[in-house]
Amino acid sequence: MARMKFLCDAERCIECNGCVTACKQENEVPWGVNRRRVVTMNEGVPGQRAISVACMHCSDAPCMAVCPVDCFYHTDEGLVLHDKDMCIGCGYCFYACPFGAPQFPQEGAFGVRGKMDKCTFCAGGPEPDFSEAEFKQYGRNRLAEGKLPACAEMCSTKALLGGDGDMIADIYRDRVLRRGKGAEVWGWATAYKVPPGKGTPPPAAAGGSKS
Amino acid sequence: MNIRSVSSVAILAAAGAMALVLSGCGERPQAVSYHQGSYSGKPDTPPYSDPPWNGNKQQWEDDMRQRVQNQNEYKRIGG
Amino acid sequence: MQLTRKSDPIRGVAPRIARAGARRIATMDRRSFLKRSGLAAGVGAFASQLPYGTMEKAQAADAPAGVKREVHRTVCTHCSVGCAIDAIVENGVWVRQEPVFDSPLNLGAHCAKGAAIREHGHGDHRLKTPMKLVDGKYQKISWDQAIKEVGDKLLAIRKESGPDAVFWVGSSKHSNEQSYLLRKFVSFFGTNNMDHQARICHSTTVSGVANTWGYGAMTNSYNDMGNTKCALYIGSNAAEAHPVSMLHMLHAKENGAKMIVADPRFTRTAAKADLYVRFRSGTDVAFLFGVLYHIFKNNWQDDKYIHDRVYGMDKVRDDVMAKWTPDKCEEVTGVPEAQVYKVAEMMAKNRPSTLVWCMGQTQHSIGNAFVRASCIVQLALGNIGVSGGGANIFRGHDNVQGATDIGPNPDSLPGYYGVAAGAWKHFAAVWNVDYEWIKKQFASQAMMEKPGMTVSRWIDGVLEKNDLIDQDSNLRAIVYWGHAPNSQSRGKEMVEAMKKLDLICVVDPYPSATAAMAAMVRKDGVYLLPACTQLETSGSVTASNRSLQWRERVIRPLFESQTDQAIMYAFSKKFGYDKEFVKNYEIWKPDGDAKFDEPTPESVLKEINRATWTIGYTGQSPERLKLHMKNMSTFNVKTLRAEGGPCNGDYFGMPWPCYGTPEIKHPGSPNLYQESRTMMDGGGCFRANFGIERDGVSLLAEDGSYPKGSEITTGYPEFDHVLMKKIGFWDELTDAEKKAAEGKNWKTDLSGGIQRVCMKHGVHFWGNAKARAVVWNFPDGIPQHREPIYSPRPDLVAKYPTHDDKMDFWRLPTLFKSVQDANVKDKIAEKFPIILTSGRLVEYEGGGEETRSNPWLAELRPDCFVQINPKDANDRGVKNGEYVWVKTATGAQLKVRATVTEAVGSGTAFVPFHFSGWWMGKDMLEFYPDGAHPIVRGEAVNTATTYGYDSVTMMQETKTTLCQVEKFTA
Question: Does A167 sit within 8 Å of B44, measured CB to CB?
Fold first, then answer.
């Protein structure tokens, strides 16, 4: 099996924030902590796009590399999880992560930064599965129930895909073929040396004319 | 060799020896790199350890591949 | 898959790896310190310092053996898409929600609101007990005291001033059963003074569209948009108002469909468009007829379709070709010819094409003309009654469709029967109540048959001079039953009305802005009664595509809240007509003595089935609906039809009309007026509602145009007993049916025999007629452009003035021209040069107190804001994120944050309407009952909106008024 991954299809994302509240609801994430956020580009003009970002569960995770107490670990499915009991809340992972995944709940007096909290791909954490400790610290463990992350399963337009990287690549590929073009948000023009918006127009019946 | 060159060679050799000595004395590399296996937190169980898989990784992966198709409306709608 | 945990899986705890090194021990001490200072990860002290209440968090706690876990299938209570939700409840506590992938409507998808709906199970900010305003503060009272005091006061007002002195604002968030019951309840109180959100939402749609071809509802469905080749969204921000509908649209787009968005703002929906057209708010007729001009000019219209099925298109054509040439269109709308042409070309060359609209079209003083212009364009292109085409009207609240169909409308009994004597007699028979008795409840027969006032104007019912209103007394009391006040315009005058009333009663799960606004201006005479949400009761709900779904009850009513039907029943006892009220129903007590008794939703739906022959709410019995909810996966997503399985042949939710009794098993009608399907297959034709001929032209369909399988292959009028006898169908009725049908027509025949026999012959009993492009009974037979009441263009006001004033319109004098002329004279457009429009956000719904009380949603949108163009901002020295005053001609001003963006063009500004709780810069927190205020409060845009009403339905003109924006100064 390939690694578990997220992929947000920018052609479909309508910035509804369903993924954001699905995560908050499912994991009872407190006010001020946003494991997942929607980012909008080119707001207000043609070319406006959005994607939803949480932890990318990197293979060579910078957070893991810099943590002074080595509280991160990789699961077999490629997820990056961490032990909150070890976490000292130093925020170094927050510096290192290019995606802003580490979040810090404001906890208690003195304004101290609490334990780092981030997207767990709804895989819970290093506590017994389905225990109260696991839920309180890490949120839901949907993977151990045979389900996928709440954000991806509840996305309003199925823009956010989450699961076996292999399979979601397939799902995305199918869409790209039908559209006849990529997301045209970033990298496309660089990679294909084509100005954005001037790619091949979608063929009239590319792989799927409607009934 | 005349005395001067012997001195310079000796100085060079001494400098080289000093460098070797210094590098062996516990100076740490400046870049941080992660070494797999140095996680020292609590252990975690894989997601397929619970019922109904009870450790059957293959079955769990199969089920997850099935489950992800819920995110693909083409399975139900077609073209 | 749901795992039912039977016991707590105890994991063997592996030995903890010893921590090495002194450094680690020092770190651990610090960690322990953090732990000991009272902070478990993720929750804890900070959370309890926040003002969000201290309800015990519902979580999947380790369940000891024997915990009772149930799964209840319900439907999201926010918008009209109708996303299904599986709610997991443990020991009565709602602990989780799961997406329902099986649902053919949403396939498991949710927007921010649906994904967060479980918060209703906490309800930290809800109204928990009945309350009474005493000396300016809300105090807790008991239910008995509440019913007694409110009831006594209402009875006293009825005795002194007549039943028409009370206005009942009902709800589009009530289930079908509740909204039907409210219509009945208020009728028995003796007045037609009732209304609900549809007035200020799609009333213009319902009226305009129904007068065009028969019914005023969405003709196709969100799902059917997956079949379209081109969609024009005009005045619809579906990405924020109906997010999950975009699943179907984007799927279509991926497969080659084109998408056009016409909107004054570049919205999130526009971001997905192939073509975006910016046009001036309030100029829809000019724009649509500018498009139609090109359609006619290039001969793209469907001549055969027009010949067979449309009346009056030639007159429309003459009008359009003369008046809406490209130059005139551009002058009014601001859209260059090339763009208008492109829209026409895309819609014409990619058929079937669909036209989608929402509030952008409806909320105007000529909204009825806008929607009809949309209908005419679709008729010209031959797109109505075609899969992938249609007039796809996106309704707002979750059950605004149901409430419109069978709920508390001032001008009609359930099912659009109207309020004439015949309609009352029909319902007297259905309700098993004496017609004369009902009549006695009213002030007079004349009042019984006179449409009531509208929710958009209740304030004038209070404040207007008594001799100018068309009823005896001014309004003395208002009951806001599931409706917010900040969605109606002229908020500044609303508080004046609130001051004057004898009684204000709010029945709502949330105190709503009404409670705060009232406490701000008065000291007593206000009661708040906690109703529960739709998740705490069961019942049916009608989505925008006319499909009905059944909601199971998730949890029992929280705190001291009661269901709306229980509250109605309790008041009916107080008013002395409980026996009549629940005549045909079963009564039950689902929570024993803890709550009031109430009629069962199933028995109420069965009465609805027996009553509403007009729109075919007859076949959707509770049993059939529940079967659909259990077998959702058997329905095809594109056609909505069950292919095999227990519901084989049905369309999901049996979208009305679902004719005949449930035994006949009509499958429902997924696309209205579709002649390519037989009657029993959900097909139809245009209704013969408007007569047989006009000016010598036949209004019936031409020969050869008929629904598939019909035995009559020409146009024909509606069926009544006379026509049945003439044609020879009469003798196919059973004797019992003959008795019931004698002297009746297809709508009033309670046996359903006329409908049954016609269906056997494939014949549509509502007639087979032409749609009307010219609606002669409307103020403008052919839609005309008229400038908004508050127009930024005095020069165009001269060319395209608004209607004349109406002195008796829905019981009130209603001004048009005099306000518009005064605005021109007072140079309002110079003092307030920016067009102010308002609309929806994805995070909130409606008046917003409910969604702004949900922390998961509130966090996403903490401030009310105004979108302002960079040029306008720079001209005023306004920077992004700063507070500004938005001022209107009413003298009101709103303190909001400026969002400087190019999403609005120069000269237009946008403020969302979901906020309330601030009044012209002042936080109204002190006026809310303790513990029952929303987390996020902000200015209500309607505090500052202006006078302006639709010329047919009294819809408020909230999409187009004028404002000025200034830097904020205290």
Answer: no
Contact C735, C644 (CB under 8 A): no
Q: Which two tokens stand for residue C17?
A: 């790896």
For A:79-98, CB contacts with B below 8 A are 81-83, 85-86
Tell me what pLDDT residue C418 has: 96
- Residue matched to tokens 């390939």: A2
Question: C83 is written with which tokens?
Answer: 């996303």
Q: Are C196 and C408 contacting, i.e. CB atoms less than 8 angstroms apart?
A: yes
Measured from the Cβ of residue C805, the count of other Cβ atoms closer than 10 Å reads 14
pTM (predicted TM-score): 0.90
Domain borders along chain B are 47-79
| Mean pLDDT value across residues C222-243 | 97
| Number of Cβ within a 10 Å radius of residue C486 | 26
The string of DSSP codes covering chain A is: ---EEEEE-TTT-----HHHHHHHHHHTPPTT--S-EEEEESTTSTT-EEEEE-----TT-HHHHH-TT--EEE-TTS-EEE-TTT-----HHHHH-TT---B--B-SGGG-B---B---TTB--SS-TT-HHHHHHH--B-GGGT---HHHHH-TTS-EEEEEHHHHHHHHHHHHHHHTS---SSSHHHHH---TT-SPPPPTTSS----
Sign of CA pseudo-dihedral A191, A196, A200, A203: positive
Exposed (0-12), middle (13-18) or buried (19+): which is C742, by Cβ within 10 Å? exposed
Cβ–Cβ below 8 Å for B73 and C14: no
Residues 6+ apart with CB under 8 A from A211: B78, B79, C227, C638
CA angle, A26 then A30 then A36, to 5°: 60
C484-499 residue pLDDT tens: 999 999 999 999 999 9
A10-154 maps to which CATH number? 3.30.70.20
DSSP string of A5-51, one letter each residue: EEEE-TTT-----HHHHHHHHHHTPPTT--S-EEEEESTTSTT-EEE
pLDDT tens digits, A99-114: 999 998 876 556 566 8
Task: With beta carbons less than 8 A apart as the criterion, state whether C601 and C564 touch.
Answer: no
d(CA C374, CA C355): 7
Residues in chain B: 79
- 8 Å CB contact of C244 and A48: no
Q: How confident is the model at residue C922 (pLDDT cuts 50, 70, 90)?
A: very high
Specify which residues C397 forms β-bridges with.
Answer: C79
Q: What is the pLDDT of residues C610-647, one digit of tens each?
A: 999 999 999 999 999 999 999 999 999 999 999 999 99
User: How close B57 gets to chain C, by Cα (Å)?
Assistant: 17
C574: helix, strand or coil: helix
- What's the rounded mean pLDDT across residues C441-463? 97
C352 upstream amide cis, omega within 30 of 0: yes
> Which residues partner with A103 through β-bridges?
A117
| Interior angle at CA A17, CA C97 and CA A160, nearest 5 | 80
Q: Over 80: is that where the pLDDT of A209 sits?
A: no
Q: Residues with Cβ < 8 Å from A76, sequence gap 6 or more? A: B46
B57: nearest CA partner in chain A: A1
**Residues ≥6 apart with Cβ < 8 Å to C188:** C438, C441, C572, C575, C577, C580, C581
* pLDDT digit string, tens, across residues B17-29: 555 554 555 566 5
Q: Which amino acid is at C20?
A: A
Using the predicted structure, report yes or no on whether residue C415 has a pLDDT greater than 50.
yes
Q: Which chains have 3+ CB pairs within 8 A of A?
A: B, C
Interface of C with A in 12-31 (CB under 8 A): 13, 24, 27, 30-31
Distance in angstroms (rounded) separating the CA atoms of residues A156 and C776: 43
Q: DSSP character for C56?
A: P
Exposure class string for C111-122: b at 16+ Cβ within 10 A, else e: bbbbbbbbbbbb
B positions 16-55 inside 8 Å of A (CB) = 32-34, 36, 38-50, 53
